[in-house]
Amino acid sequence: MAYKSDCKSITLSLKYGDTMVATQVSKTDAKPAPYGIWYGVPEGAEANDYVIGIGVYQQIQSIEGSDIQYNGVIASAAGSEPAMHTIEGDVVTLTGLFTGNVYTLAYNDICQMVITDAAGNKYICDGERSEPEPETYEPYASGTYVHGAKGSVYVEYFDHTFTNSLGAALGVGSYDATLYRSTRKSNRFAIDPWCQGVDALYFEVDPESNQITIPGSETGFTGNNGGIMAVDCYSLLGEHPSTYNPDADLFEFYLLLIDPGYSVYGVDCDQFVVTGGASGTQKKSFTKGGKTIKEKRAMHTLTLKKR
Fold first, then answer.
1. 103, 74 in Cβ contact below 8 A?
2. Domain map of the chain by residue range?
3. pLDDT of residue 131
4. Burial level of 122, CB count in 10 A (0-12/13-18/19+)?
């Protein structure tokens, strides 16, 4: 079977033995509703490597414990934030509640949904899937993962000193792990096994500054508002950056532990120490369980609970 498509119709060609049958399916003039999650990539980029995401919700939602209401979300390399949207005709306009940045979501002349960011850059959306494809990671190095490497961390934003939350809850101080590198993006990595084994620890290393960003990994623990995630402290609070030291082959992670309701369960300083090559390990395709959470909320000190 083969097909070709334009903005008005799809032609399917099917072969039965020596007989070829062609069927044309006309598209409706009505465009699909914009509600849902849209992933966008710059034109010419890999279709499965999205760099911006827009959520458009039909109902107003609230952040628990605050007066913040929203009916959309904006997620990009700069961070994520709730947003309010308006719809006029085929155009959706989203305004970030924290930054005031304005994004639009609209159809182009060949029926693709296009995101336009605050700087005017355009991203083509892939409407045929609801989430990005799993990435393949190659073994890069072996090493030791250490929970609570610095014992305690003082966080000025909360005026509070946190102790080794994950390590204490796990009852494990360190263990052998493998560092994997993405075959799609050379500065994107994953450490596995990590924590309870529900998710790998995903992160990117800036090739110039060696600063690390952690978009979010599931810890396997449950809080009051759902699964507790680990994100990098600096992206959210502006202090304690995670870094890579190439001289010592040492990755240092300052992990902010947070749930979808923005309750905070601790800030840990963990380390991954490279001890050798990654011989004997296999390629892996990880399905990311994490979501980016980058909103400043009030602190709640709660007990980690295993799932």
1. yes
2. 1-30, 36-125, 135-306
3. 42
4. middle
